Amino acid sequence: MKWLSEDFKNLREMFVFELRMMLSAEEQLVRALPNLEVRATNEDLRNAIRSHLLETEGHVRRLEQILKEQKDVDPAITSIGPEKCKVMAALATETDEMITDARDAWVRDAGLIMDAQRVEHYEIASYGTLRQWARVLGMHGAADLLDKTLQEEVNADRLLTSIAEQVNPTAKVA
């Protein structure tokens, strides 16, 4: 199985490609989160999803800014648009299936939290790596923006864990 479909000549090319993948991932989340908010029963979970939607819109803007800066620095970059993130598409499909399969609202909320944390962990891993690559490449402004996004993802994951501590015991007896 081929993990990457590009012929990267250097770390900078892979960095730009992965930024484009994360742009796609965040755009997919912007489209998916409103549906998850509607499907959530727990008020804290709904509020967390609504808040994360606003943060995610900010993540999109940051990624667009970093990508534009990359194109300005290197005119050889041919595209700064999103590159379809298959991981996020698969996670969204799994979430849709779980929503359909979970009959009890509390069980569905527990599943929404699990699926949201899967997304957070993917984003944490991705942004942590991208931040490090930016530092290695001497792109300190990009590294700072990626670090800000990374910290927001870590905080979102922690919030979901605290909400799970409320939701899961009720889902257990459903």
Structure description:
- This protein is mainly α.
- It has a single domain, classed as Ferritin.
- Helices cover 81% and strands 0% of the residues.
- It has five helices and no strands.
- It starts with 10 loop residues before the first helix and ends with a helix.
- The mean pLDDT is 94.
**Overall pLDDT confidence:** 94
**Strand tally, please?**
0
| CATH classification, class level | Mainly Alpha
Main beta-sheet annotation: none
User: Termini separation (Å)?
Assistant: 41 Å
| DSSP helical segment count | 5
| CATH topology descriptor | Ferritin
Looking at the overall shape, the CATH architecture is Up-down Bundle
> What Rg do the Cα atoms give?
17 Å
Helix and strand content put the structural class at mainly alpha
SSE pattern, N- to C-terminal: HHHHH
The quaternary structure here is single chain
> What is the count of distinct domains?
1
Strand content: under 5%
Low-confidence spans: none
The named CATH superfamily: Ferritin, core subunit, four-helix bundle
Give the overall silhouette: elongated
Considering DSSP H and I runs of 4 or more, what fraction of the residues is helical? Answer: over 70%
